[in-house]
Amino acid sequence: MIVQLRIDDRLIHGQVALVWTKELDTPGIVVANDSASENEMVQMTLKMATPTGKKLLIRSVDDAIKVFNNPKGQGMRMFALTNCVKDALKIAQNVENIGGINVANVGRFADKSEGEPVLVGSTLMLSHSELDALKELSKLDVPVFQQVVPSNAKVSIKTLLKDK
Fold first, then answer.
1. CATH superfamily of the 2-161 domain
2. Residues with Cβ < 8 Å from 42, sequence gap 6 or more?
3. Which pLDDT score is estimated for 25?
């Protein structure tokens, strides 16, 4: 079971490593990212950022979906990370049993080839195609919210998407 699927530009960093891994109390982290799965330097950086005692699995989005759907992992609690809304949408459309999707920090590196990014929340700035993906994500039968750290209140993505 994916306890939480978090969308975060930086994948593993202080908020994830020091705060969320304790809050979610999962044995490890699954990074679902095509680029990271092919880049040894990024993999090494992610491993260095992983808290001691936690396991890290770095897979392409398609391979991560296979891991999440593997019957051997059905009883395992997993904390999953992606760095874009489109990848999270693909996972959510192909994996059952996701506890929630936290759209935390997205858009610092927004693709401006689609024009100026759209500000959705204080830490969410999305390209138009990412905004469309977020709208699709919000229609699924999974809680989708923004919560940067556990001490912040959860804000429904549907609330943030009003008038967008």
1. Phosphotransferase system, sorbose subfamily IIB component (3.40.35.10)
2. 35, 36
3. 94
Q: Which of 3, 6, 11, 13 is catalytic?
A: 13
Strand arrangement, sheet containing 144-146: 55-59, 28-32, 78-82, 2-8, 101-105, 144-146, 155-156
Q: Copy the structure tokens of residue 157.
A: 């993505």
DSSP SS3 for 22:
helix
Taking the domains of the chain in order of start, what are their residue ranges?
2-161
pLDDT (tens digit per residue) in 36-95? 999 999 999 999 999 999 999 999 999 999 999 999 988 899 999 999 999 999 999 999
Is 13 labeled as catalytic in the residue annotation? yes
